[in-house]
Design brief:
Elements: H1 2-18, H2 21-40, H3 45-89, E1 98-105, E2 114-116, E3 124-126, E4 131-133, E5 138-145, E6 150-157, E7 160-167, E8 178-180, E9 201-206, E10 214-215, E11 218-219, H4 222-237
Antiparallel strand pairs: 1-5, 1-9, 2-6, 3-5, 4-5, 6-7, 8-9, 10-11
């Protein structure tokens, strides 16, 4: 709830700083006037069509005024979504069950260059030979994590050892579905450090089960609750913050 309210206040601040407030107020008034005109002149098709035209034009103008704020908000909200998804949208991996770990390689790398390290993290067992899919440039490992713990899958790439966290319990309050290399690390789901820049591995990922959460007795996705409450907070704060939306 606190995160949602802060999100709504942040969105409202960006809208206030990046949009022409007077023009937004006028376009919203014109939209409302067109709606009222349609209701008042139901017996005059000609005036209804004109009012509908004005409604469409002023609606598009309103969206155009708001567009810069939407564009500026898309990146931080997208990154914030990834940060929250690993906390509220995903569960830890099931213990003592077969898991599939996917390793994506850069173009031109032979899949035989990556293999399980001789020594694995505590509680991790690789239960089948790796499967290399050349058309995808991906290797698949079948892994089992014993008991309730967080362990590291260790992969050998030449003389280099690359690890991936596999958690059957939450570390703090988040899980780590993937570990990436380079700039893509910024939109990776999880808080692990990026893969080494000189590694031929681009991504190591494992699918986590979705979290089942009930709000008001109904199964509602966490992000819907987040965005709905943030929108309500934005409308509630628009007058105190003197922002037109």
């Amino acid at each position: 709830m606190i995160i949602s309210i802060l999100t709504g206040a942040g969105m409202l601040w960006v809208v206030g700083k990046t949009t022409p407030q007077k023009r937004i107020e006028r376009s919203r008034s014109q939209v409302a006037a067109a709606i009222y005109e349609i209701r008042l002149f139901l017996d005059s098709p000609r005036r209804i069509f004109k009012a509908q035209g004005r409604l469409l034009v002023w609606s598009l103008i309103y969206v155009g005024y708001m567009l810069p704020a939407f564009i500026l908000l898309s990146l931080p909200l997208g990154l914030f979504f990834l940060h929250l998804e690993v906390r509220y949208g995903l569960e830890p991996l099931p213990a003592n069950q077969a898991l599939v770990v996917r390793v994506d390689l850069e173009e031109g790398v032979d899949g035989r260059a990556v293999s399980p390290a001789p020594e694995q993290g505590d509680g991790i067992s690789i239960t089948a030979p790796p499967v290399y899919v050349e058309s995808e440039q991906s290797i698949y490992f079948r892994v089992v994590v014993d008991g309730a713990r967080t362990s590291e899958l260790r992969l050998a790439v030449g003389d280099q050892i690359v690890t991936k966290e596999l958690a059957t319990i939450r570390q703090g309050s988040s899980v780590s579905p993937e570990r990436r290399r380079g700039l893509s690390h910024w939109w990776a789901m999880g808080a692990e450090s990026p893969l080494p820049g000189d590694s031929p591995i681009e991504t190591i990922s494992v699918a986590h089960p979705d979290s089942q959460r009930n709000w008001l007795g109904m199964p509602i996705p966490w992000w819907l609750y987040w965005l709905a409450l943030a929108t309500i907070a934005a409308f509630a704060l628009r007058k105190p913050m003197q922002v037109e939306i």
